Amino acid sequence: MDLYTPILVLGAVAAAFAIGSVGIALVVGPRRYNQSKLEAYECGIEPVPELASAHSAGQRFPIKYYLTAMLFIIFDIEIVFLYPWAVAFDNLGLFALVEMLLFMVVVFVAYAYVWRRGGLSWE
């Protein structure tokens, strides 16, 4: 149990900080509500008035938002694989270097494809 005490203390401090920050913001923060603050933030999409009621299902998002999210996830996954590889690079050898280069080439080919098809332009 002595090995886990610092981890438990760190978790308790982190939870106390998170709960304390939210609590202080609720107590001290300003309460100036208006119509624009009560609307959902949709990444720059103007809400349609007839769909803005509380009982509606909402509105459709342009596909470019989903493409951007998918690109973000792809590069996150690349970093998840790249970081442990970089930490253990000395022990892995030439085979791991070639495999990581092939992995990065595949990811960048996909990125170039999306860029060439206009998936990154917001016009």
Automatic annotation (TrEMBL):
Membrane topology value: Multi-pass membrane protein
Enzyme class name: translocase
Domain of life: Bacteria
Ranges in a coiled coil: none
Primary localisation category: membrane
GO MF annotations in UniProt: NADH dehydrogenase (quinone) (non-electrogenic) activity; NADH dehydrogenase (ubiquinone) activity; quinone binding
Cellular component, GO annotation: NADH dehydrogenase complex; plasma membrane
Enzymatic reactions: a quinone + NADH + 5 H(+)(in) = a quinol + NAD(+) + 4 H(+)(out)
EC assignment: 7.1.1.-
Gene3D superfamilies: NADH:ubiquinone/plastoquinone oxidoreductase, chain 3 (1.20.58.1610)
Family matches, as InterPro entries: NAD(P)H_OxRDtase_bac/plastid, NADH_UbQ/plastoQ_OxRdtase_su3, NDAH_ubi_oxred_su3_sf
Subcellular location: Cell membrane; Membrane
Keyword line: Cell membrane, Membrane, NAD, Quinone, Translocase, Transmembrane, Transmembrane helix, Transport
PANTHER family recorded: NADH-QUINONE OXIDOREDUCTASE SUBUNIT A, NADH-UBIQUINONE OXIDOREDUCTASE CHAIN 3
Subunit (UniProt): NDH-1 is composed of 14 different subunits. Subunits NuoA, H, J, K, L, M, N constitute the membrane sector of the complex.
Family the UniProt entry places it in: Belongs to the complex I subunit 3 family.
Name of this chain's protein: NADH-quinone oxidoreductase subunit A
Species of provenance: Mycolicibacterium moriokaense
